[in-house]
């Protein structure tokens, strides 16, 4: 019975904050106890030391169960099972698969799946096509190149192409930061908070392994799994460092040529998909935690914007909270008047909250609006004109014409490069 009600119990436990308040209570035991308390026959003299603990939370737990019933529009406990089994927006998010172009190409990956009995439906023309995917059908995403889309429940974790690093299982929203940063091959890029490295491997694919990625992270364990991921993905242009990004000196000459920075800092994760429980966004972070996270994000963003050769920066989070998103971006723009927001993907349906002029250039994502996890992205670009030959050369020395082009031409080239991915993606969007 406890298993049957697991999703209901987890939802009630999460909303009542039981595990946060009682650190010693393990999740599976919490389920059994809360089942007995709310849905079973009560402790009836049993319950031992857990009984007084549960009694302290009884009122809140009962209230959350009642609220859940109101939200689902049901009156009996059993009806919650029925309502819970209806597919919610989170469980309708398709399985996105990025083809790793360092190891293979889209055509070969598609052929492999076809040989395995999957049926390729061509490029989708709208989100509705993705929503309608079923069985062994798959599509190419309407917006992002090299992104295959399978029905929501498709599990490819044991697929040989995934195990060989030819495929990266990565949500569409999480593919946007590297796509919108769009560093051309040969450029130098910083991935400031890089582990476990899905976006780093995407950057390396865009660079075609030419140029350099300086990837930083504080967490040794996450860096170790990142090293494995990058090796499997065939990434050879990345220098990994166990370093606090805030201590990386922008004037160190190693970073002289860094024109692109991806900043995907630690965040509350309030937009992350939690497929089994349909509990996305339910664990609302406390104001105190949000303040601490936003303080770090703000600091890291302003630090990144101080790299002297920087031309373009993507700031992203998997948070839904304004404090970590629009507020951080607004403050960074106020403190860095030399930068502005790039107007990317104008047809993307979900925009930044209108909390400051220009916030509509930010992108938001969610299961309901974009069929992805919850996400936020802002693209910063330097507002001033490129002013020296060395900057143009630093953009992509192997590709830079010689002699250096005139100032006006250089500016156009940089604009085109900066807009390239967005424009290319835009061209296929909503067809
Ligand atoms: C959201 S995750 C990054 C995910 C990664 N970009 C990806 O796509 O796989 C945030 C990372 O920032 C790291 N981090 C937190 N504070 C940091 C700091 N001061 N300097 C460098 N990395 C930091 C965390 O260890 C964590 O791995």
From TrEMBL:
It is found in: Nucleus, Nucleolus. The active site is at residue 318. One of its GO terms (cellular component) is nucleoplasm. InterPro entries: MeTrfase_RsmB-F_NOP2_cat, MeTrfase_RsmB-F_NOP2_dom, NSUN5_7_fdxn-like, NSUN5_RCM1_N, RCMT, SAM-dependent_MTases_sf. Gene3D superfamilies: Sun protein, domain 3 (3.30.70.1170), Vaccinia Virus protein VP39 (3.40.50.150). Residues 85-383 form the SAM-dependent MTase RsmB/NOP-type domain. S-adenosyl-L-methionine binds at residues 193-199, 217, 244, 264. It comes from the Eukaryota. Keywords: Acetylation, Methyltransferase, Nucleus, Phosphoprotein, RNA-binding, rRNA processing, S-adenosyl-L-methionine, Transferase. Residues 418-431 have a biased composition (Low complexity). SUPFAM superfamilies: S-adenosyl-L-methionine-dependent methyltransferases. Residues 394-431 are annotated as: Disordered. Pfam families: Methyltr_RsmB-F, NSUN5_fdxn-like, NSUN5_N. GO terms for molecular function: RNA binding; rRNA (cytosine-C5-)-methyltransferase activity. PROSITE patterns: SAM_MT_RSMB_NOP (PS51686). GO terms for biological process: cerebral cortex development; cognition; corpus callosum development; oligodendrocyte development; positive regulation of translation; regulation of myelination; rRNA base methylation. Belongs to the class I-like SAM-binding methyltransferase superfamily. RsmB/NOP family. This is 28S rRNA (cytosine-C(5))-methyltransferase. It comes from Ictidomys tridecemlineatus (Thirteen-lined ground squirrel).
